[in-house]
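Moderator note: this is an archived Q&A kept for reference. The question asked for a predicted structure of one protein chain; the sequence and the answer are reproduced below.
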Amino acid sequence: MTPADILRLPLADLVTAAAGAGPAGLAWLRFRCDRDLAAYMALCWPGIAAAPFAPSHRAILAWFDSLPPFDIRAAQAGADAEADPIARSAWEAPRGTGKTSVAIAALDRAVRSGREPYVVIIGPESAHASALSVSLQAMLSPGHPAASPMLAALYGDVGWTGNMGDGAVKRGAVLGFPAGVSYVSVRSIGGTIRGLLRGTHRPTLVLLDDLEKPDDVGSMAARDAMHEKLNSDVLNLGPQGGGLAVCLMATRLHPDAVSARLQRDPAWDGASFRGIVRWPVGVESGEIQEGSRWAEWRALLTDPASPARERERAALDFYRAHRDEMDAGAEVLDPHRLPLYRAMLRLVSIGLPSFLKDVQNAPIASGGGAFRPDSFRWCTLDGRDVVIGYGDSARRIPLPAFSRAVIHLDPTTSRKKGSTARDFAGFAVVAMRDDRATGERLYVVLEWSAVREEPEDQAERAWAAWARWRAAGIPTVEVIYESNGGGGACLQGEYHADMRRKRKAAGLPSTMEPVAIHESRAKDACISGVVPLLNNGVAVLSTAIRSHEGGREALRQVEAWPGGAHDDRPDALTKALLRLNSASTAGVPLTNAGRELSPSS
């Protein structure tokens, strides 16, 4: 039988053919299982693969099957210096649907087959990591109740030596495959993971499982720190020559969770799956509509006049009597592990916000909620070009094609050196491109920060930005500053005149004329007007904003608005956008914003 035949035949037919072929038949099955994780689980771990695979499982299985053994990956990385030396994927699926079980089975196969010399599992905390270690050790020990005799026949006996955190898995020779050893380490993301080395091996395959914790994910600082640890520590665990593979399993706990960020990162494979793909008739986005069969069912299920068991029985009987009508229009991800009725029970039990997080991978941010950081569009600056998108589909717009830019400073008023009571100074630079041929208006946020600094330093920041973006080719660059409460003293009067003289004497651009603005409208009303610009991608953010603490503080303030302690950063951006809009041709709508923004909004 040819290799193509072994991979092409339905598994049941291959098993039948192998039964009469002696040792050659076992070799066929081993060949298939090494390349087909679903077949490996069905033949060797029937207790785990008892229910049919859902689309989420099949996608994860396909990624592991597409991953060559480490020695081949290392050779490919060495042969092509321009290729990404790390294979990486991130998967989001509902809680309780077995995504991690599939990944653990993939690790079990990787160790038994010798595909991976060194496997590392990383969890959010030590207790979680220990539970994963126990699961894998049990699979790698004789007599597991979910295993079949085919496991030992195809892969021989294996033995774990070591402790819960670090083990060596020895495998015997079988079916012509030599004996060998693979290493396993289990860690928590909060512990020390740098510098892992077993013998001569650095990690070759890393499984990350639910790294973020509900108590921490609400903090942008915590999310940024987790993302940084992933990029700086985890992705650098592998061999120096390349070949590392990293796989993340998660349920999205926040709109801007690290798993959500990775879904938007073109360097990462993977996908996000929702437990309910399409809601049934009578339910819209998780909201049960009054007057629907589902509303009648909910009334029975939550009737306080009946004991719990009776309510549950009455609701189930009602559903069975009207199943066809109540199931109409619905599609679920996994009808075996999370059928529609069980999902609806969970919806009523835990409430819509928790359901959206745990089942739909569509959580609602708490504390703020107006801005949606997960929907923001980002661009990069390449010389004098703004680049939106990636690869062949990237859109390049020269900075001189933007008609104007506004620099807005919301200054602090305290000039006392070292004052700890000083508020944040908000700073934003926004460029506008108004394409009258197509009707498109695009804003690019070039700079955005919130910092505590002296008034003189604030003025210098404005001067530097003005000179920088004029030199980049933007035809008109205007500086405005908030004069409420006497702010901006360093951008007016004799101090400003003296600064102009000094810059002129030094041969630096010196013609900047800042414009004082006094905003009488309520700050929150102004900020509300620009929410759709960011959420709908009309205002595109430079990735440079995320590279410094002032920019990250600005993003934290935006995410927390309107419930946060500070709003200087969203206010600074708002004033720049309002200024650009008021200076543009009257009557030109913001066609991409989903609503119009006017100077009087």
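Archived answer notes: The CA atoms of residues 14 and 445 lie 59 Å apart.
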